[in-house]
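Ticket reopened. Same input as before:
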Amino acid sequence: MSALPAQAVVALFVAGDAPRSTAALRNLSAVLGAIGGAALRVDVFDVLRDPAKALEFGLLATPSLCVIPAEGRRRWYVGDLGRADALANWLADSLGCAPGP
Amino acid sequence: MDLTDPSLDVTGADLAAMTGAGVTHCPTGIAWLDRLTHGGIPARRLTMVLGQAGAGKTLLSCQIAAARARHYGTAAVFAALEEPPEDILRNAAGFAWNLPGLAGDRFHALDLRPDPDTVFGGDFDLRGLLATVSAKARQTGADLVIFDGIDTVLGWLREPARRAAELARLGEWLRVEGLTGIITAKADRQGAAVDVLGPLEFAVSLVVALERREETSGMLRSLRITKYRGSAHSSSAHALFFARDGIEPLMWPGDTGTPAPRDRVGSGMARLDVLLGGGYLRGSTALLSGPPGTGKSTLAALFAAGVCAAGGRAVHVAFDEGPEQTIRNMRSVGIDLAAHRASGALRLIGLQPGRDGPEQTLSGILAEIEAHGAQALVVDPISAVMRGGLSELGQSAVRRLVEEARARGMTALLTSLIDPGQDASLATLSAVSTIADAWIALGYAERNGERNRTLSIVKARGSAHSNQTREFIMSAEGCTLADVYTAGGEVLLGTARMEREAQEAAKEQSAVVEHLRRRRELQAALADSEARQRAIALQLEATRSEIALLGQAETARLAGRTERQGLVAASRFADLPEAPSTQEGQNG
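Engineering reply: fixed in the latest deploy. New output:
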């Protein structure tokens, strides 16, 4: 397991709908754990309650996942987080580490 | 995974409320658009502007935002999903609205272009976009939101039903947030929405279709309102052009209602002013028609120079020659355009005929008028404006030019070449002559081996004008008109007129001489009579005196005789005789 850039932040944008958000967050945590990113900070924003966050990020779709590196540009993953493989590959790529086992 | 099944949060009742009857109009502040839509776009509902690339979708939505800011002081959020906001501001900078000046104040552009590296991993909806725009609208107090290039993000959704559902969500969101929305989207050539938008009918209240058609003869831009639920609206296609205020229909929808001025503007020629009843009516448009070389350009330049000499400002557009050539040609007939250009009163423009389509040419001329603050316009010849495009477009452009001139109180002179061999020139003439307020026909009269220029007023609305033909004389000393003579039903011009003038002058001269002679004769006769009258009076007096003297002498004689008889009788102591005098005389 390679070291993940600790400064990176992962932001999950959801629009209300608590059960979905919970499920999405649970899937995300599982994938992060699998690729060795369990220590990463994950911010979850409900844009219906906090639209200012959507504006801050220029959000287009929900749910969306954004990797915010310490340096360089943000990377976006749009869609529900149901496809663990695709999500794991994208996260590993975005965070600059190899996909987990 | 329950995220794969997003609910729409839209009920049938909401949809009916969203798109049903009883629409409230939100005025755009663009006079022509508010007229075509019978009051504006639907308030708190969705308007879609459809069109191909370059048809003016983004421009029209910016124009609406700017017009609302200017007229109502309202703010708009502009979600730029396709083009960067800098480009949008730059493209709009050429128009009169000062969009860059409104930016950050009444025009809030958000750069929401999707990252091209975005990865899609499952189902999603556009509530994120709506949240972003909500936040900006609340922050700025905007009541209008524009999604420019909505098809970019709708295209992410594969299922047509899902796209339609997202549009419906957008409509519902407007209603809840109390915002009026405009979306722009690409359309195919026929003006229908591209497939990516799916069925639109139930989600959109107003559809404005823009079309941009390439013709061999030029580009045709047009606008048509294809749907306006719950509102009356114009349904015809309106040809468009780019004016200083943005997109405008060539044909102004309806009357401008400008009051018609009654005062006159000098034609630059005193005698023509007399014929016109004082000059051209201010704010009117006059057509000068005639074959080549009849003096159309000269008469037009005279007018421009006259306006400038009187302290006005004029724009003179010549198509067949450059400004220097115009100056040189007019100098030969005593018109000094160079001086007026040097003083800044005259703007001389030489345009290449047929280089641009009618609407571009019109835009160019209107921009010059605006920039120069002109009160008078000359277009020589107007047929050049109609060239290089579709014929109906050309007529619309000319009509629009005349309407603009009228609305600005500008007096315009348009020349039109009549070439008997060219049907096109006659078509121009018939098109322009119906629009123009006055029509002056210039021509040639050919007789006895010479050609002479003629001028006659065919029509002059609002003027009691002369119906007589005049001879139009151009010389280095200037231009004027001369009366013409008719002899045996023929109009005499040139040499024949001059001969006739000489004859008339000689006749006049002899009449004067005759008059003087006759007067002298009568005066002599009068003097003679008076002298005779005096002689007779003297004779009368002398006769009267003689008669008086004669009477006195007789009285004296008789008195003397009586005295003598008395002395004789006294000496003789005789009785006085019964009948004295003669008997006594004979005896004595």
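Residues 9-94 of chain A form a domain with the Glutaredoxin fold (CATH 3.40.30.10). Chain A has one domain: 9-94. Please confirm and we'll close it.
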